[in-house]
Write a structure and sequence with these properties.
Blueprint: H1 8-16, H2 34-40, H3 46-50, E1 67-72, E2 78-84, H4 99-109, H5 121-133, H6 143-158, H7 167-179, H8 183-203, H9 206-216, H10 226-234, H11 243-252, H12 256-259, E3 268-269, E4 275-276, H13 284-299, H14 305-313, H15 334-346, H16 354-363, E5 367-373, H17 374-387, E6 397-405, E7 411-416, E8 419-420, E9 430-431, E10 447-448, H18 454-463, E11 471-475, E12 480-483, E13 492-495, E14 508-512, H19 513-519, H20 522-529, H21 534-543, E15 568-569, H22 571-582, E16 587-588, E17 593-597, E18 611-612, H23 618-629, E19 650-656, E20 660-666, E21 670-678, E22 689-690, E23 693-694, H24 699-713, E24 731-734, H25 742-751, E25 755-758, E26 771-775, E27 778-781, E28 785-790, E29 795-797, H26 806-816, E30 821-823, E31 836-838, E32 844-846, E33 851-854
Parallel strand pairs: 1-5, 8-9, 25-28, 30-33
Antiparallel strand pairs: 1-2, 3-4, 5-17, 6-7, 6-21, 10-15, 11-14, 12-13, 16-18, 19-20, 20-21, 22-23, 24-27, 26-28, 29-32, 31-33
Helix pairs in contact: 2-5, 4-11, 4-13, 6-7, 6-8, 6-9, 11-13, 13-14, 15-16, 17-24, 18-21, 18-23
Length: about 850
């Protein structure tokens, strides 16, 4: 509303404060503003700030811009996953704006734009006089001056903390500081605005200035720039705006939050609290301003009478198309989007401070091109949707899958069964947590990965020179001894592994490491770990890129049960470890971003990533792959996840207690890791049915169909042959336990890794609890079975009777315990002596056995 007319005394009082500035005339840098300065009497030191050098921010075409995350569809077309903005803005080129919009803006805001030098002096002088007198508050700003004003507003807004509780109030203050025109500060601001406008006119073309203004101007709320305004208010583009639509937008820009047409209940209220410019009054304020713009266009000859009549007669009917910002817009790809967003927000490549990175994402106009491959992602999304219910039983059942490219670390797909929402909710089928990620990338606490962690015991086993064909006693044992001496806080560990047992509560068996791996035998891997160092096993995980989900090292704490994957780790980290094996030993950090362009089109520095050759040796990698292929074939535990398309695969299953399951599989080109289980609750998933099958088996189709798509897109080949030394047959010395008690012999043999069985008693003169014989003896495959033959207590050694008389021989045999003696007839001669016995002298024989004596 215009102010009431002021008295002459009031006018003079308003000028008194300016008298001391009259000396500014001598400091003018351009004659264009001399009349204005003379009229106002602005002078003195105040002028020094008016004519400072043109700021860097006053470059046409550098407004705050939204950042956008892209992916490519199977045909190579760029797809927008999501946008992030503080100001909804889509910059356009000059040719991407309808000419009628230019006409509407110029006719209503600055009809002399193409003829003045940045300042319309006559209009400005009149506006100053009217402002001082209080008869009008109009500014008479040219388009060039309005561009300067909007830049100054944005410069102020960029300094506002987006996390501030007074964010809205601070933005309003930016607008008021740049647009108020009263008092000395207001006049100084206007003069400085004029100075900059004149300089901009020298540096840029008229078209560049006009376009710069339209790209930066506010059109109400968070809508900035003509393209965003056209999309938001009319669901069209700036290039397709009609006469009526152009007049409306040209009117809105004059007072954006008064004339906006997206608030059905009104955009402003009067002193009585009555709402105006609403759907109910036909957006009367905007309509009045539109009609003024149409009149100016008609008067300037920019439109015909017929166009004017038609546009003026039309009602204002918005076609609001509110843009969706944030990863929710990515829908089924939202969790991958959220992972990418977390990289921008947390990596110092995008700013030293958290606020810098957040501001860059929302204001910096980044174009972020990702590694997502729709050929795999679409298949993964489909099988996830068809297989895993979002909230099956209200007990936090969830699932996630991730695929990475072997040898590069590029994340090709990332899926999750829940619906992405930014805000907390009681619906367990909705969350913003990225299950495949960790605390830094997705706020996830990770999961106990179960037997997939056995990979690191297998690698350490091979690195210590052991063979996958070595045979061990893989039976469940109560008090197994382990060590973690490789860590400073390490020492001897004792564990009752019988509390863990095996799947199905089996007691275990003696077999090779190949068998233990294919069948995922817990007690077999405990037997392997007992010959290694628990800390070394955890350090292997660290070397292959695995940290705990909270960022801590895997070897910071060590216990025997680590062998079975009790630590909370992200599925993505585990995928990277298996990809290391598949690559022949090269570990690559996960990468989700291919490149990032700034608003100037220049590539920005990306987060640090690398591929480290020799994370494990090629020989160890090849032999580990050899063992892990057994998981995916025959009766291996991962066979259900094999797509059966002929692609050679390695893999490993994993379960933790009764509420977590995993499946990891890999070709030589792509690794897929799937988790399915409880993400908070510890309710059982075994023997629990869902519409798609048992909860503990849903991991198999998820991994299978994702890997099938990966195999089609990235055909894998054969894995390298295993190392001869690491697949050798290993023989072990068998302790000699003959003469020991059965209990002593059993303890000694089991400590050496053998299984012991006790056979039937054999003839021996030893006591009945003494081992008389063992089989095998000498050397055999480690961990094999040794049969003990205890004495029956009925044996005796046939004495050497040679040269003795019959009577002497008989007495000696009877004394040895033999009760059945048969002498040959030749022994009856008076001078006869014994020549031989049957059994022969020194032989062991049952005391009831007949001893034949010859003379």
């Amino acid at each position: 509303m215009p102010q009431k007319n002021r008295t002459v005394r009031g006018v003079l009082g308003g000028l008194v404060g300016l008298v001391g500035l009259s000396a500014v005339a001598g400091l003018l840098v351009t004659a264009s503003v001399t009349p204005v300065l003379a009229m106002t009497g602005v002078a003195g030191n105040k002028a020094l700030t008016i004519f400072e050098e043109l700021p860097e921010v006053l470059k046409v075409g550098t407004p705050m811009e939204q950042s956008t995350i892209y992916a490519k569809d199977p045909n190579g077309k760029e797809i927008v996953l999501a946008s992030f903005y503080e100001q909804n803005r889509v910059p356009v080129t000059y040719d991407q704006v309808s000419p009628v919009l230019y006409d509407a803006i110029l006719s209503s805001e600055d009809k002399s734009f193409y003829s003045h030098g940045g300042v319309n002096l006559g209009a400005t002088v009149k506006a100053f006089v009217d402002n001082v007198k209080g008869t009008s508050s109009r500014g008479a700003s040219t388009i060039s001056q309005q561009f300067v004003k909007n830049v100054r507003i944005q410069e102020c807004e960029q300094k506002v903390d987006t996390q501030s509780e007074t964010y809205t109030e601070e933005l309003k203050a930016c607008w008021e500081a740049a647009t108020q025109a009263e008092g000395t500060d207001g006049i100084e601001r206007k003069l400085q605005e004029m100075r900059y406008a004149i300089q901009i006119e020298k540096d840029y073309s008229k078209n560049d200035i006009l376009l710069g203004y339209l790209n930066i101007a506010n059109f109400g709320g968070t809508v900035y720039g003509i393209e965003a305004a056209a999309r938001y208010y009319f669901s069209t583009t700036a290039a397709k705006l009609t006469v009526g639509q152009s007049a409306i937008l040209a009117g809105i820009v004059q007072n954006p939050n008064t004339f906006r047409i997206d608030l059905k209940d009104g955009s402003w209220t009067d002193k009585q609290g009555t709402a105006h410019n609403s759907a109910a009054d036909g957006y009367a304020s905007t309509k009045e301003r539109r009609d003024y713009v149409l009149y100016r266009m008609l008067d300037d000859g920019k439109i015909t009478q017929a166009q004017y009549d038609e546009a003026k007669a039309a009602e204002i009917v918005p076609a609001i198309k509110a843009p969706t910002q944030g990863c929710a817009a990515a829908k089924v790809n939202a969790y991958f989007c959220q992972y990418v967003k977390s990289i921008i927000e947390n990596d110092e490549a995008f700013g030293a401070e958290q606020q810098d990175r957040t501001d860059l994402l929302r204001r910096g106009g980044l174009k972020i091109y990702t590694t997502l491959d729709y050929r795999i992602q679409n298949a993964a999304v489909t099988v996830m949707k068809d297989t895993v219910p979002a909230n099956f039983d209200n007990k936090y059942f969830g699932a996630a899958g991730v695929s990475v490219e072997v040898g590069t670390g590029r994340i090709l797909s990332m899926t999750q069964n829940t619906q992405f929402v930014e805000t907390p909710t009681k619906n367990l089928g909705q969350t913003s947590l990225v299950f495949a990620g960790d605390a830094l990338h997705g706020n996830s606490g990770g999961f106990a990965v179960g037997s997939t962690y056995k990979l690191f015991t297998l690698i350490d086993w091979l690195e210590k020179g052991h063979s996958v064909n070595e045979v061990l006693n893989g039976r469940v044992q109560k008090n197994m001894k382990f060590t973690s001496a490789a860590c400073p806080d390490g020492g001897q560990l004792t564990a009752d592994t019988s509390k863990i047992g095996n799947f199905g509560r089996g007691g275990g068996y003696t077999a090779s490491v190949m068998d233990f791996t294919a069948q995922s035998l817990n007690s077999g891997y405990f037997a392997m770990a007992s010959k290694l160092d628990i800390c070394d096993i955890n350090k292997v995980a660290d070397r292959m890129g695995v940290t705990l989900a909270d960022g801590k090292k895997t070897y910071e704490s060590n216990n025997a049960y680590d062998v079975l994957g009790s630590k909370a780790i992200s599925p993505l980290a585990m995928a990277g470890a298996y990809a290391t094996v598949a690559s022949g030993g090269t570990y690559c950090t996960p990468r989700a971003i291919e490149k990032v362009l700034g608003p100037d089109g220049e590539e920005r520095e990306l987060p640090k990533s690398s591929c480290t050759k020799g994370a494990i040796s090629p020989e160890v990698a090849a032999t580990a792959a050899y063992a892990l292929q057994g998981v995916m074939s025959g009766n291996g535990t991962g066979q259900k996840a094999n797509p059966g398309d002929g692609t050679p695969l390695i893999g490993k299953t994993g379960t933790h207690n009764t509420y977590q399951t995993m499946m990891i599989e890999s070709s030589t080109k792509v690794t897929t890791a799937v988790w399915a289980g409880r993400w908070k609750d510890e309710a059982n998933v075994f023997n629990v049915w869902s519409p798609a099958g048992l909860l503990n088996e849903l991991r198999y189709p998820l991994a299978r169909e994702t890997q099938r798509a990966a195999n089609a897109a990235y055909p894998g080949g054969a894995f390298p042959r295993p190392d001869n030394n690491l697949t050798r047959r290993v023989l072990t010395n068998v302790p000699d336990v003959v003469g020991k008690t059965v209990a002593e012999a059993t303890t000694q043999l089991e400590a050496a890794g053998f299984t012991v069985t006790v056979g039937a008693p054999v003839d021996s003169d030893k006591a009945t609890n003494i081992v008389a014989a063992q089989d095998p003896s000498g050397q055999t495959a480690g961990g094999g079975t040794v049969t003990l033959s205890p004495s029956n207590g009925l044996g005796a050694t046939v004495p050497n009777l040679a040269g003795q008389t019959r009577d002497a021989a008989q007495a000696q045999l009877l004394g040895a315990g033999f009760t059945s003696i048969e002498f040959a007839g030749s022994c009856n001669a008076p001078e006869a002596t014994v020549s031989a016995t049957n059994p022969a002298a020194g032989a062991a024989a049952n005391k009831t056995k007949k001893i034949s004596v010859a003379c």
